[in-house]
Amino acid sequence: MTTRTALSFLLLGLGASAAHAQVWGDPYSPPAPAPAPVLAPAPPPMPAPAPVSPYAPPPTAWGAPAPAPPPASPPAAAASSSTSAATVTASIAIAAAPTRTPIALDDDPAADRTWLSPTPETQRRGSWTYNNYEFLVHGMSYGIADNLQVTGFVLPAYSEGSPAIYGASAKVRVLAGGPLRLALTGSVWSVDAGDGSDSTMVVSAGGTAALCLDRGCTSQLGVNTDLIKAGGDSTNYAGGGDSSEDSGVARISAYAAIRMSSHLKLLAELNRGRIGTGKLELADDGLLMLGVRFHSRWAAADLGLAMPMNFSDDDPDTRGAFPAINLTYRP
């Protein structure tokens, strides 16, 4: 009885233990695995675009592989690279090569003259310039090239019996770009004395040289001379010869044009000299002109005094003075 009772109690204890483990869980058993998270289905992978070769046309479809360029032999590729490098180097060398500095041009529309004397400067190519001297003489200059200009001028007969002059001239600059400039001049004109006599034909040729004091040659010192050949009584009068002599006349002048500001210049000019009866002889009389020039790029006005000089004595003196006015317009 005792043994059976003990077995009964043992079976009851095991059943209770099993029931307790089912209700409260076994503290020594491993925990139940957590349920796996439910994830949304991943989108299908997008095809990556294939690299496009710069030497081949683009692919027909997105993502389609581009055709590979045809293989080139190493020697050919090396020659092509060498040629390309040489071409690029030559282009860079040509682009970097220094250009020749152009001749600086004065923005003064009357830079081709001072008062009466020409300078080595010429009007710009394709430009027209109107000049007026003492409100009496009218002239028009045209720049055929940057180193060549032609000029026409006229002194009309303002009254019956007054003289009239019609003429034309040309000037070509033969030396420029440095501190020394040189130009050759020539002119021809007809002089009508207004007394009923025949007109006189006058021809001149000469040159002018200047030393530039700045890079643009806006300030310069210069000299010029014109050998003048005239016929009729005017030659004999100018040369001091008789009616049987065929003489010539020379006009010799020196000038200075000094730029003081962008719109102001100082002008000085001395005219003197002649060649008569076959020998060089300085005239007793001369003409000194002093003044200023106000100018812009389109117009210029010369204002000053013209003073006849007498060089017959050791002490030259002036013989009065009269106003000198020159006007220039360049459209």
Care to describe what's here?
The chain has 331 residues and is of the alpha+beta class. The chain has a domain at 128-329: Beta Barrel (Porin), CATH 2.40.160. The chain is 16% helix and 42% strand. The chain has helices at residues 2-24, 74-96, 233-239, and strands at 128-133, 137-145, 148-155, 164-175, 180-192, 200-212, 220-230, 248-261, 264-276, 279-295, 299-310, 317-318, 322-329. It has a 12-stranded antiparallel beta barrel. β4 and β5 form a beta hairpin. The longest helix is centred in the first third of the chain and has 23 residues, at 2-24. The chain starts with a helix and ends with a strand.
CATH architecture of the domain at 128-329: Beta Barrel
Beta-strand portion reads 35-45%
Indicate the radius of gyration in whole angstroms. 51 Å
The CATH superfamily title of the domain at 128-329: monomeric porin ompg
Judging from the principal axes of the Cα atoms, what is the shape?
Answer: elongated
Low-confidence blocks of residues: 16-25, 77-83, 92-104, 233-246
Sheet of most strands: 12 strands, antiparallel, barrel
What do the pLDDT scores average to?
Answer: 76
Q: How many strands appear in the DSSP assignment?
A: 13
Number of helices: 3
- CATH class of the domain at 128-329, named Mainly Beta
Q: What is the helix fraction of residues, given as a range?
A: 10-25%
- Spatially, the strands of the biggest sheet line up as 1-2-3-4-5-6-7-8-9-10-11-13
Instruction: Encode the helix/strand succession as letters.
Output: HHEEEEEEEHEEEEEE
CATH topology of the domain at 128-329: Porin
Task: Compute the separation of the termini in Å.
Answer: 149 Å
